[in-house]
Write a structure and sequence with these properties.
428 residues; alpha/beta; 12-stranded mixed sheet; 25% strand; elongated
């Protein structure tokens, strides 16, 4: 089985290392050896983490992926182009493709799946979400006989590390980000992570698999963590909560649509996701028959991601040897993605208010006027420091937003000091 590798960076170099170190075991598991046919790189003379025979290196990626003797193409260069064109070219020639490209799958997965269907090869992408954690194949295959209702999880290690450090040490967002960058958990430009783009792409892929419907990153409601302050984290901690950036994919109550969103949320410290520390990932899957399943592990890094890539390589190589094919894209349900305003959530709200009689009654009146009921309320401070802290029952996001807009107009409310969605069971 001849393999063309696109990219020899952090992940690509680890793929080569594992192919070498585990060559005997891989041959036994597949029934044929994996042989590196070529490695496409941008610059030939660059120093790499692993030694590669110079004769294998090429800057002509298209020629490599369309070579007649290549069986499997592994894409780990990332981005939209030229990755899309190269993958489509390979699939069109009947090659099987293994990719870790979450951004491309979330933006234009339909094109890739169609190319795989017409070309007759496999398209596997376990490494695109949650690194080494076996997650996509259970959704695509193990749970194919079940009815998945919800997927909830932490799918970005950078933001989880930052929020964990803010919670454990009281650090500010900027200080925690600098520490993450120093340790290599965050890029020099962390925008994709801290603004939620990375998690949104992964949420789109998870939702598509879980609900047998096409979902793109553009359809995912996205909020990042840049506005989270040390005060927010301390307030959540005092109430027995922790703040996490969550990817949430859920069927509507009538089952006719799905909501897909990424945003910071408070979860009780008793919730299993609350204990996910540092740069680790964890995902809950709730299915009708299987119940609650939790997948936990290293969500990023060269070796963990390469582990997922190798697993896919073994699967597609076995398929090619036996003349079989892996599962194609399943979109038969064609569920629509409903807007965030229709999503039912709970909220934690902090209001800076005037310290005088009747304030709570007027605030409660605004919540009632917008059909949002209050679960808990407490008053903190006095005088200029007076604050009301409320947690709502579940209501539509549109109703909660309208309530916040109305509260800002009240003369007794000096400021809406903080609004945070709440996930999971438990009392504030």
């Amino acid at each position: 089985m001849k393999v063309a590798l696109l990219g020899c960076g952090v992940v690509g170099s680890q793929v080569i290392r594992l192919m070498r170190e585990q060559a005997g075991d891989l041959t036994a598991r597949i029934g044929a050896p994996l042989e590196l046919a070529g490695v496409a790189v941008r610059r030939l003379g660059r120093k790499r983490e692993v030694d590669v025979d110079p004769e294998l290196l090429t800057t002509d990626a298209e020629a490599l992926v369309t070579r007649a003797d290549v069986d499997i193409v592994v894409e780990v260069i990332g981005g939209i182009e030229p990755a899309r064109s190269l993958i489509v070219a390979a699939l069109s020639k009947g090659k099987s493709v293994v990719t870790a490209n979450k951004a491309l799958l979330a933006e234009d997965g339909a094109t890739l799946h169609e190319a795989a269907r017409t070309g007759g090869g496999d398209l596997y992408f376990e490494a695109s979400v949650a690194g080494a954690i076996p997650l996509l194949r259970p959704l695509r295959e193990s749970l194919a006989g079940d009815h998945v209702n919800r997927v909830l999880g932490i799918v970005n290690g950078t933001t989880n590390y930052i929020l964990d450090k803010m919670d454990s040490s009281g650090a500010s967002f900027n200080d925690a980000l600098e520490e993450a960058q120093a340790l290599g958990y965050a890029e020099a430009d962390p925008t994709a992570d801290v603004e939620g783009f990375d998690a949104a792409a992964k949420a789109a892929i998870l939702a598509g698999l879980a609900f047998h419907s096409r979902v793109t990153a553009e359809q995912v409601h996205r909020e990042g963590i840049t506005e989270i302050t040390a005060t927010d984290v301390a307030s959540a901690k005092a109430m027995g909560y922790v703040i996490k950036l969550l990817a949430i994919c859920a069927r509507s109550d009538d089952g006719q649509s799905v909501g897909v969103r990424v945003h910071p949320a408070m979860i009780p410290r008793t919730h299993p996701l609350a204990g996910v520390r540092e740069a680790y990932n964890a995902v809950f899957v709730e299915a009708e028959s299987a119940g609650q399943l939790m997948f936990y592990g290293a969500g990023a890094g060269g070796a963990p991601t390469a582990s997922a890539v190798l697993g896919d390589m073994v699967a597609v190589a076995r398929n090619r040897l036996t003349g079989a094919r892996g599962p194609e894209e399943s979109t038969y349900a064609s569920l629509s993605v409903h807007p965030m305003g229709e999503t039912v959530t709970r909220c934690h709200v902090a209001l800076d208010v005037a310290d005088k009689p009747g304030v709570l009654a007027r605030v409660a009146e605004e919540f009632a006027r917008h059909d949002v009921s209050i679960q808990t309320v407490r008053q903190e401070g006095h005088g200029d420091d007076a604050q009301l802290v409320l947690v709502t029952h579940r209501a539509s996001d549109a109703a909660l937003t309208a309530t916040m807009d109305a509260l800002r107009k009240l003369d007794i409310v000096r400021a809406v000091a903080g609004v945070m969605r709440v996930e999971g069971d438990g009392q504030a």
